[in-house]
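Reading a protein record of the kind used here takes only a little practice. Think of the row as the fold of the chain written in a discrete alphabet. With that in mind, consider the following protein and its fold in token form:
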Amino acid sequence: MADEENTACRRQAESRFMSTVNAPDPLISMIFEKLEEQVERLDHLIAMIPVDRLDWRPKIDDAAGEAEVWTISELLGHLLDCLAGFCAAIFAVYGDKLPDWEDLRALPVNHACGKEEAASRVRIYMRHIRHGFGLLEHEDLKRKVSTVFVPSGEPLLVLLLGNLEHLINHKFQLFFCLKILGIPVESRDLYRFRTTIPDRASKDPSRCFRCARDLGPQMEWKKMDTQAGPICYVCFNQAAQPS
């Protein structure tokens, strides 16, 4: 029974954010895959936030005095706004085919947000974004969408790439906050390295098979061993959560 549970956990950990989108255009699929890669790492970083530090804010001094910066919980609320931006852009093009997306507008963003709410909402947005990308065709990328900043409209592709840049910037902000707090984050927590999961496990069994985290000299980050290799407790907990 334990082996079966370990195998199920491993499969969930491998596939949770690694699905494909059924888009007719390869470019659209590649944009979505890059977005999904960023969101998978964001989900990973959210899981590493100490619950008792959600109200912590970094102290940053500028020439005018101490700058006003977000707490970690406020940053999580803004990261949700980053994902909502993708939904808004797609809805502007295919709103007639996505009537249920109107409900997304009622969901709060830019608010003080807990870890569980953030993780749940990330999955909600990604389900909608995956569906929306599946509707897009190559010609849609040229369609102009009016925004608050550019009422005359900008191409959908520009908006999607702008939203991706926005998300990546704030994902790094979360990474940097964790680093200041002394959480042992490294490059592999921020980026998905371009190696396959089997390669990671076979090349370095002292790293988590899913995220390639260095498990430390005492293997203090290891939750358990699986057939694919050891898994860290962060990835194990993520895989154990319902999608």
Notes: The radius of gyration is 19 Å. Residues 1-18, 197-202 have pLDDT under 50 and may be disordered. Helices lie at 2-15, 26-47, 72-94, 115-135, 156-180, 187-190, 197-203, 233-240.
